[in-house]
Design a protein that fits this description.
The chain has 30 helices and 16 strands. By secondary structure, it is α/β, with parallel strands linked by helices. The protein has 3 domains: 387 residues, no CATH class; 138 residues, STAS domain (Transcription Regulator spoIIAA), CATH 3.30.750; 143 residues, Jelly Rolls. Strand 6, helix 23 and strand 7 form a beta-alpha-beta unit. Helix 6 crosses helix 7. The two termini are 44 Å apart.
């Protein structure tokens, strides 16, 4: 109901134009009064009705009306004075009031066996509810606001809807205030309640000039009163909300003579569970609304501090025998819908409710309980989030919609304890399902990724068109049994007949459990049996230790890609491999060069041996030598050793590196060394090359052309790597 009224307010303000849009800011006092009256029009029938239901077991020699009226006013007033916040209205909320009623009913049921007086029953209830707010205070101390953000929307919606449906079910079971479904007056009470619902709904677009719920309650109550005066007899049919009584103050609990040990032994478990449920559900409601305050209204605050503040005053009010107040999201939204009202309206609302408590004894007995029951039915229906009533949402997000209604129905039928268990189960399965659904972060099936290993043109020409035989799956999230099983299933489904190598990149998987590793081993075994070689890259060291020797793993994705490329190169015919191996000490830069010039240049090369982990040059060096790898491998990195920086490329036999400084004379832009083991190089100084090029100018042009082609290929490889990074 409140959300619908809020939308109506926004539509009215949007249609007023630029000139009138600033009027609320110009008249903050009037806007604050209107907003407070609008919020109180919901609080009066809602809080008083819930209070009458909650304290019904204590009816007898005490004024239940006084108990309900003071609970509706004093706790909210204390919170408003002690912890004022812009736009936040404090009042008894549905979940706290309903669970307070459950606690009091439990304590009242134990009264005959334990010899408890009504005031002692109120004390036992107050102690239990105070314990609930101690739990809530602990949630604030432990900074659980951040954890609440991870609860699935289906669970939070389900709890909210469950509270609302419980209210509706409670009114139906109570015969809409007549007493029971078998009461002969049920039909008249149902008619009055539904009239309140229909009239309030019809007036929702005129809010706040005609506050629908309070107007509907007053109109039906007046009609019943007039019918009784005119002799129609309806005055005797309808049960009044409270019997006529004189003004009475709060009823203070009696804390003396209570057999606490017997209470704990017989009903302690049930009472503690109710307290825990109240703390969890009420905390969630506060935390969710605090996020709304920050995101939608720019009112920043510390949600954990809000939990702690409300908990201390809530425990105090519970000990005093009242239903504690809490952040009322529905009434706060009414206030926040009117500009300029956020600061004044909460205080005015608290003053209005105090006036209701002081004057309620004069008029509450004129209000039929059926009217308040109708107000509670409407409030309960509007407690259900709007999305859950949406057919479009049900079609587009069927699993989430169904989970929300599951939790809500469990709450309404079986109670809050079972709903809490159902919510935790749903949250666990939702989080696991989301993890499984997103376990494959990226899937590369067409050879988009290549290693940083630089190869000669002939080798690269063989590898490139065959890289579509390599499938790369990037994994993410914590790997449990179910997530790993879903991952294995998706890998099998996405593989194509052409794929001969599979790489699982586990760099974004923070943890594996033993069952997930078992799934991984089974997947790799099945792929191997199908003729598909599989490997895991960036596997966590601890997971790699427990995975066993049967899992082929690499330190990073680059090395895994290089493994696949080497396997593809091994498919070349033997004559192609022999031709490349016999290319001479100049490697790729000597291709196409006249024999005499090539032999003259080879005579200028200076051999150099590099030990394992030895450095060839470092970033910033000024030498201009061109280097050819005769055997082994050389790693180029931003710094040395490569683990401290970024590995840029790996070059093997016949490959050239250091060409940038050789051509431009600039300082070395990277470091180079033998990372994988000893290597043997051939060095060509720039001075010797210049002398040779003057003697063999045509061969010099061939060498420069080879360097240019090599640079173009390397630039293309760098572009592919950059594209793959940006696509992530």
């Amino acid at each position: 109901m409140v959300s619908s009224l809020t939308r109506a307010l926004r539509r009215r303000r949007a249609g007023q134009g630029a000139d009138t849009a600033v009027l609320p800011e110009a008249r903050p006092a009037s806007s604050g009064m209107a907003a407070a009256w609008s919020a109180a029009a919901v609080t009066v029938p809602h809080a008083v009705g819930l209070g009458l239901l909650a304290f019904a077991p204590l009816a007898g020699g005490y004024s239940v009306a006084a108990l309900a009226l003071w609970s509706a006013a004093l706790p909210g007033l204390l919170l408003t004075l002690a912890a004022p916040r812009a736009g936040v209205v404090y009042a008894p909320t549905t979940v706290v009031a309903l669970l307070f009623a459950a606690v009091l009913a439990t304590a009242h049921g134990a009264a005959p066996a334990l010899g408890l007086s009504p005031r002692q029953v109120l004390a036992v209830s107050g102690a239990t509810v105070a314990l609930a707010f101690v739990f809530q205070w602990l949630l604030g101390v432990l900074r659980m606001a951040s954890v609440a953000r991870f609860l699935p929307i289906s669970v939070t919606h389900g709890f909210a809807a469950g509270v609302g449906l419980s209210m509706v079910v409670g009114q139906v079971k109570g015969g809409f205030g007549s007493g029971a479904l078998t009461d002969a007056r049920l039909g008249w009470h149902a008619l009055a309640a539904l009239t309140v619902v229909g009239l309030a709904w019809a007036l929702r677009r005129r809010w706040p000039s005609a506050p629908g719920l309070l107007t509907a309650v007053a109109a039906v109550a007046l009609a019943v009163a007039l019918a009784g005066v005119w002799g129609v007899g309806l005055g005797a049919v309808f049960v009044p909300a409270a019997p006529e009584s004189a003004f009475a103050g709060p009823l203070w609990p009696d804390w003396t003579g209570i057999p606490w040990l017997a209470v704990a032994q017989q009903h302690g478990q049930a009472l503690v569970v109710l307290a825990l449920l109240m703390a969890v559900v009420n905390s969630l409601e506060i935390l969710v609304f605090n996020q709304e305050l920050e995101l939608d209204h720019g009112l920043r605050g510390n949600a954990n501090a809000a939990l702690r503040r409300e908990s201390l005053l809530g425990a105090l009010c519970a000990i005093a025998g009242m239903i504690p107040a809490s952040t009322s999201a529905s009434r706060s939204r009414i206030v926040l819908a009117q500009p300029g009202a956020a600061h004044r309206a909460p205080r005015i609302h608290a003053a209005i409710m105090l006036g209701v408590a002081l004057t309620g004894s004069w008029w509450l007995h004129w209000v039929p309980m059926a009217c308040l029951a109708g107000g509670l039915v409407l409030a309960g229906l509007m407690q259900v989030p709007r999305l859950m009533w949406s057919a479009q949402y049900a079609r587009s997000s069927r699993p989430t919609w169904a989970q929300s209604w599951l939790v809500a129905l469990v709450f309404a039928v079986l109670g809050g304890v079972w709903a809490l268990i159902a919510g935790l189960v749903v949250a666990t399965f939702v989080l696991l399902r989301d993890s499984a659904a997103k376990v494959l972060r990226h899937v590369r099936l067409d050879g988009e990724l290549r290693s940083r290993r630089l190869r000669r043109a002939a080798s690269d020409g063989w590898v490139t068109p065959r890289m579509n035989q390599v499938a790369v799956f990037e994994l993410q999230g914590v790997m449990s049994f179910g997530v790993a099983a879903h991952m294995s299933e998706q890998v099998r489904l996405r593989l194509l007949p052409r794929h001969r190598w599979v790489i699982l990149d586990a760099g974004r998987v923070p943890a594996w459990d033993s069952t997930a590793l078992a799934q991984l081993r089974a997947l790799l075994r099945d792929l191997e049996q199908q003729g598909v070689a599989a490997a895991v890259a960036t596997l966590d060291p601890l997971a790699a230790l427990h995975a066993g020797a049967g899992v082929r793993s690499f330190a990073d994705l680059d090395r895994a890609l290089e493994w696949a490329e080497v396997a593809i190169l091994d498919q070349r015919p033997l004559d192609q491999r022999a031709r490349q191996d016999a290319s001479g000490p100049l490697g790729e830069i000597g291709e196409g060069m006249e024999r005499g010039a090539r032999m003259a240049l080879e005579a200028l090369l200076v051999p150099q041996a590099v030990g394992a982990q030895g450095v060839v040059f470092s970033a910033g060096d000024r030498d201009r030598d061109l280097l050819v790898v005769a055997s082994g491998h050389i790693t180029l990195s931003t710094c040395w050793p490569p683990e401290r920086g970024l590995r840029l490329a790996t070059v093997g036999p016949g490959m050239v590196f250091g060409e940038m400084a050789f051509l431009s004379g600039a300082e070395r832009s990277a470091s180079a060394g033998a990372e994988r083991g000893a290597a043997r190089l051939m060095r060509l100084s720039r001075e010797r090359f210049d002398g040779w090029a003057r003697q063999y100018p045509e061969a010099g042009l061939v060498l420069m052309e080879n360097l240019a082609q090599m640079g173009a290929r390397r630039l293309g490889a760098t572009t592919r790597q950059l594209r793959s990074v940006l696509e992530q």
